[in-house]
Amino acid sequence: MGYFNSLDVGASALTAQRLRMDIISQNIANAGTTRTENGTPYRRRTVILEEKSPSAPFSDYLTESSKEKFVGKGVRVAKIVEDATPFKRIYDPGHPDADKEGYVKMPNVDVITEMVNMISANRAYEANVTAINTSKSMASKALEIGR
Length: 147
What we know:
The chain is of the alpha+beta class. The protein is 42% helix and 16% strand.
């Protein structure tokens, strides 16, 4: 793995964690949204991440010289999916979105869970910034050896 590969891996992780934080923020912002464009309450969204895989033909993996192809290439967002858990129901007969029994369907967003996920994404982002800075420091020290 070369110097720029480590920066590419870190950069892909920063991008993925930033998007993850954006989606979490969107979930928190819509925790009280009872009606979207399609008439239903807001549905919580989550980010699915996957490893970037090397794009080489299978035959390349059979040679001894291609062991470096097994090194990860970073992370990418596979997709953003909606959480299928049922909506919460609260009794509020005065609410404009209440059904005939007086219950309102609320989004399936749990703010505490979202805050835990936000802290996790923030820590992952910070760890990747540290990894990038360490790679830069190692390269700088390697250049000082030649002086």
